Amino acid sequence: MKKFLIGFGGFLILLGAGGLINHISMTFKAAEAEREMYGGSIDFMLLQMVGSFGPYLFALIGGGIIIAIVAFLTAYEKRNDLTSQLIHTLSNKDSDEKINVISPQPQQTENTPPQDSKEDEIPHYEQPQNERLYWNG
Q1: Other residues' Cβ atoms within 10 Å of the Cβ of residue 17
Q2: Tens of pLDDT along 50-82?
Q3: Residues 6+ apart with CB under 8 A from 70
Q4: 3-state DSSP call for residue 114?
Q5: I want to staple 16 with a disulfide (CB 3.0 to 4.6 A). Which of 3, 53, 59, 135 is the partner?
């Protein structure tokens, strides 16, 4: 479907551009012929014929919009695929964590002392020196 829409949008753009070029050349020829026959200003004659550019401009704009919609749908589809992969990965990660939590904890023997979780913490006065402090004053 996307290939068809891209082809159709491209066809509309080519049709609009070709028709617009053809119409402009025919307008100049007709205006020159009328000026030779009746005299007068060629600018006014061209201004009267500008109103007939509508279908060609509509085909150009319509083809561009169709191609833009297809590009948006393609990007949206990629985004949905990445989101579903992320959800799948996170759901598998959560199930792995649940399995690890359920697994039995190693029991301590009498020879090993109990470990405190506070031993892993770094005291405030021994913070790394590369940490930046900012004054909000």
Answers
A1: 14
A2: 888 899 999 999 999 999 999 999 999 999 999
A3: 2, 5, 6, 9
A4: coil
A5: 59
